Amino acid sequence: MSLKGRTAIVTGSNSGIGLGAAEELARAGADVVINSITDRPEDHALAEKLAAAHGVSVRYLQADMSKPDECRALIERAGGCDILVNNAGIQHVAAIEAFPTEKWDAILAINLSSAFHTTAAALPGMREKGWGRIVNIASAHGLTASPYKSAYVAAKHGLVGFTKVTALETAGQGVTCNAICPGYVLTPLVEAQIPDQMKAHGMDRETVIREVMLDRQPSKQFATTSQMGGTVVFLCSAHADQITGTTISVDGGWTAL
């Protein structure tokens, strides 16, 4: 599934699922642009590390995905975009009546609206080339819901709907758009939550993972960031030329319940 000669942009990709996607795209031969809100030496060092490991071009470009102009400028600054992975996202948990307005606005902006702005900027070039792949990282919460996650669930459901509209508007033009819906993925953020959960529930590591964190994931196993990245690569390959406007669940059976 070689992607040599393609340029991929992955938003929110200096860690977690985004970094997993960037690494697997680079492994498949694509030149990659990674992104986050920070602009630290270690961000640029990460790009250099990926480039050296896979023999491709990898650049780090800072952009704030809550700001429409910066979302669109990211595509322009990259100088080309054959593959767009909309991954940037944040979370906040609270009851609806206690949910801070600024948190709602930020989650909708970063988790949903940023994908609209980057896609709008990338589509003209994809159409001109007659080839493009857009992969939106949604969530099991784009297909189902949990209490106290109103903004996240609303945004991810919206992202699934936006995926379908994008697919319909690009059908027959060599461009596809799909959404990946992960369950729990073992990212650094999730890993950092395990000790606190162990303490709160008085459980050992394996028990708290199985009975608390993965309560809704029937496999009782985390997905990995490399598995997520491999799914992205598949959707960008020729094997997936006729897969568009759909969701792929990588959730250990969560949404089968």
TrEMBL record:
<protein>
    <submittedName>
        <fullName>3-hydroxybutyrate dehydrogenase</fullName>
    </submittedName>
</protein>
<dbReference type="GO" id="GO:0032787">
    <property type="term" value="P:monocarboxylic acid metabolic process"/>
</dbReference>
<comment type="similarity">
    <text>Belongs to the short-chain dehydrogenases/reductases (SDR) family.</text>
</comment>
<dbReference type="GO" id="GO:0003858">
    <property type="term" value="F:3-hydroxybutyrate dehydrogenase activity"/>
</dbReference>
<dbReference type="InterPro" id="IPR020904">
    <property type="entry name" value="Sc_DH/Rdtase_CS"/>
</dbReference>
<dbReference type="InterPro" id="IPR050259">
    <property type="entry name" value="SDR"/>
</dbReference>
<dbReference type="InterPro" id="IPR011294">
    <property type="entry name" value="3-OHbutyrate_DH"/>
</dbReference>
<dbReference type="InterPro" id="IPR002347">
    <property type="entry name" value="SDR_fam"/>
</dbReference>
<dbReference type="Pfam" id="PF13561">
    <property type="entry name" value="adh_short_C2"/>
</dbReference>
<dbReference type="InterPro" id="IPR036291">
    <property type="entry name" value="NAD(P)-bd_dom_sf"/>
</dbReference>
